[in-house]
Input
Amino acid sequence: MLSNIPVFYEDEWLAIVNKPPGLLTVPAPGNKLRALTDILNEDLQNNGLLYRLHPCHRLDKETSGLILYAKGKAAQEKLMQLFKLRKIAKTYIAFVQGRIEQDKGLIEKPIEGQPASTCFEVLQRRRNFSVVKLSPETGRTNQIRIHFKAIGHPLVGESKFAFRRDFALRSKRVCLHATYLEFKHPWTGEIVAIESPLARDMDKFLEDHPD
Output
């Protein structure tokens, strides 16, 4: 279906694509750069396909990984309802500054007055950073970045919620990758479970920063 962006799953109702870092999910006011959704729909049009893809959630510009798209507005409404009901499991991989000593944990900190919680598990501890698998239980804007800053371990590459000059470890972008999506397909009833390998630049970061 799509020539420029990797498609990890597709059927007649939805598609799951792998967003590279550096792309907005949808156009931002005043931003002239093409967004992922524009690219996908231009590709469909160029291939003579009449339907349009509509994002059911978003990733930050710097974040890479899986995004769920609906084929048409009616499908989008149905899939977005699954997100609202917390029936779609999302898992991320992040590199965070410093060594998190706790193997597993739950961060509970309100964001803009709304409850917010993030589960995490430390996968690796390296010299100046930790590799963390995490699952946000709520979907507040910038939740992961805010929560890890709150516990003193901002994401590697963070510049919005922490000062880069405060940390020796640097990255060209926030080291966050949406690696896994799982949900019960609302039309077929089957379980859809899709995993995306770590983005190449994050793999390269691990190679360049061994234990």
User: Anything to note?
Assistant: The longest strand covers residues 88-97. The CA atoms of residues 148 and 205 lie 19 Å apart.
